[in-house]
Each structure stands twice: as C-alpha cells, then as structure tokens.
Amino acid sequence: MYDFKAFAAELRSSDCDVITDAPMREHTTFRAGGSAPVIVMPKTLEALQKTAEKIRKNGLGFIVIGNGSNILVKDSGIDKIVIKTTSLNNEINVDGDKISCTAGTSLAKLCMAAYENSLSGLEFAYGIPGTVGGAVYMNAGAYGGEIKDVLCASYHISPGCSIEKFSGEKLMLSYRKSFYSLNDGYIIIKGEFKLARGNKEEIKAKMDDFISRRKDKQPLEYPSAGSTFKRPEGHFAGALIEQCGLKGFSVGGAEVSEKHAGFIINKNNGSAADILALIDYVKKTVKEKTGVDLEPEVKIIP
Ligand SMILES: Cc1cc2nc3c(=O)[nH]c(=O)nc-3n(C[C@H](O)[C@H](O)[C@H](O)COP(=O)(O)OP(=O)(O)OC[C@H]3O[C@@H](n4cnc5c(N)ncnc54)[C@H](O)[C@@H]3O)c2cc1C
C-alpha cells in the first residue's frame, strides 16, 4: 500500500492546496462516489508542472479534474492522485479576436470575458458548468455550437512532463471526443480560442436565451452530470428514454428526471452504485425496446 499521506505532505506548499481522504462527492456535480487518497490543487502552472513531475517520479497514477461536472466516481473511490485545476490562477488574456485562459477557468467566466470584449462564438458554452480543460477534453457543445468551432490551440503537460502546444487536426476534435479523451496521461493547462467581432447586446441576448432554455428544460435543481448519454446517431437519447416509459424511474436515490429524460439525477442522496444501476437499466431497456445502443457521456471512474 503506497503511503499517500507522506506524498501529500511533500506536495503541500504555498503554491498547492492538498486534501487527503477527500470525498469525491464534494468535488463532483453528481454528489456521489467514494474518496480519493489525495486531491492536489495547484495555484500556478509552475506548481502544476512540479506536481506532475513528482507524481511521475514516484510512479503514481493520477487523474485530472476540473469542476467534476462530467464524471461519476464509483463508491469504491479512486486509487490515484487527483489533480484539480480550479485553483489555478485563472487569468484570461484577450489579444484582438483571440482569447486564452488556463484550464481551470470556468466556461462562465470565459464567456463573460468574451462578451465584455464584444467577441462572439462562445455563447453556446455559457451555462455548461465546466472548466476550459474539461470542455476541451470533452469537446463540449450545446445549441449547435461546440469547442471544436472556436478552439485554435491547446497547451498541455505531456506524459514526459514537457509543455506542448497542439492545434488543428492534432486536437482530433469530434463529437464529445478529443486527442485527450483518446490518449491518457496529458494535462491540459491552457486553451486558446479564435472568436469573431460581434455586437455586445446580441452576444448577451444569445447567452441569456441559452441560460433560460436550460432553466426551462433541465433539472438544474438536482445534482447530475448533465446529459447522461451521448446522442445516438439519428436520435435523441432523452426522447428514446421517454418513449420507453422510463421518465421518473428510479433506483435507490437515482432517478430518470421527470423534467428531461436525458438526465439521470441524484434526487435523494443516491450512491454511485444506484446511478450506475440506473444507467445499466436504461441502456438495457432502450436496447430491448428500440434496438438503439446508448453510450454514457459521463466518464465513470475508475
Ligand atoms: C447541469 C449540467 C449541464 C450540462 N450541459 C452540458 C452541455 O450542454 N454540453 C456539454 O457538452 N456538456 C454539458 N455538461 C457536462 C459537463 O459540464 C461538460 O462535459 C464540461 O465540459 C466538463 O468540464 P469539467 O471541468 O467539469 O470536467 P470534469 O467533469 O472535471 O472532467 C471531465 C473529463 O475531462 C478530463 N479533464 C478535465 N480537466 C482536464 C485537464 N485540465 N486535463 C486533462 N483532462 C481533463 C477529466 O479527467 C474527465 O475525464 C453538463 C453538466 C451538467 C451538470
């Protein structure tokens, strides 16, 4: 058994906050799941790079999280170091029609900065409750837009601990996929976006419209990870689930939302096992009744 506590003490410094025996329910929007031995939250990119080097020197596994809005940690917990990016100095730089920021910056903050500078293209992302790192990893998208449309470069720490810049085809962006979701061991540290000059009022009106559509359609009052399943080719996951009569179906504290069947919500303090059992039941039922395979969009860890 590795001595994570001693390692955590080594990581703790003025530039890194460290939590040991950390309940992941407090770091994920699903509000479920077991613990991680160590969560390290670097405050600077230098501290993040040093952390990555130490983890690798010790031969330890790690996962990176942003806001934890697209992950479900099993009740057995994580046997790896968790690097959380939200404490990074979230500087946003605007240079003409380009805007860049560190990976832990929330999409909401980035979108507001784009709006304040009359830059259009990121409105779709306002209301996605993640960080830039998580959005690049997932190629997040909504209302006809996706990160692929606006991301011009991404910087990461490679498995060899060097800082690299990827752009264009190297990013391998497609529906909810990226180079990073297809290759383990990379830490996204910064995103650079190319936007278009726009009209400030129109940008704000679009952002407000998307937020109000979310409030109308999505069960934002309950913990979830957003749409539980990817959109199957030619269908909508929510419509298929509703068609199978599963709205409101529950396992333990997990429920298929009455408001939007595409969302599994943690309605009543459910465990990760409840959520996973419900995901399996929904998949099985939809396959039997419609012949369509649903694939979870939420990342199940481990
Ligand atoms: C209410 C609600 C609504 C949502 N609506 C949408 C929507 O409209 N569209 C959409 O696409 N998604 C949506 N989501 C899902 C989620 O918000 C997005 O996928 C978001 O981009 C995840 O960002 P995050 O920072 O929370 O990532 P996390 O959940 O923390 O991580 C997601 C994945 O990215 C990896 N990762 C995160 N940061 C890094 C990094 N710096 N380097 C390397 N890997 C990293 C993690 O290891 C993990 O595999 C919604 C979620 C909720 C709860």
Give structural notes.
With 302 residues, the chain is of the alpha+beta class. The protein has 3 domains: 4-84, Uridine Diphospho-n-acetylenolpyruvylglucosamine Reductase, domain 2; 92-202, 2-Layer Sandwich (Uridine Diphospho-n-acetylenolpyruvylglucosamine Reductase, domain 3); 219-301, Alpha-Beta Complex (Uridine Diphospho-n-acetylenolpyruvylglucosamine Reductase, domain 1). Helices cover 30% and strands 26% of the residues. It is built from 9 helices and 19 strands. The strands form 6 sheets. It has a 5-stranded antiparallel sheet. A hairpin with a 2-residue loop joins strand 9 and strand 10 (145-146). It is globular, with a radius of gyration of 19 Å. Flavin-adenine dinucleotide binds next to strand 3, helix 4, strand 9, strand 13 and strand 15.
Global mean pLDDT = 97
The kinds of small molecule bound in this structure are: flavin-adenine dinucleotide
Indicate the low-confidence ranges by residue numbers. none
Strand fraction band?
A: 25-35%
CATH architecture of the largest domain: 2-Layer Sandwich
- General form: globular
Helix/strand-derived class? alpha+beta
How would you write the strand order of the largest sheet?
6-7-13-11-12
Give a count of the beta strands, DSSP E runs of length 2 or more: 19
Order of SSEs, N→C?
HEEHEEEEEHEHEEHEEHEEHEHEEEHE
Q: Given this structure, which CATH class of the largest domain is correct?
A: Alpha Beta
Instruction: Kindly report the CATH topology of the largest domain.
Output: Uridine Diphospho-n-acetylenolpyruvylglucosamine Reductase, domain 3
Biggest pleated-sheet summary: 5 strands, antiparallel
Q: Give the domain tally.
A: 3
N-C termini distance: 18 Å
Number of helices: 9
The Rg value, from CA coordinates, equals 19 Å
State the helical fraction. Answer: 25-40%
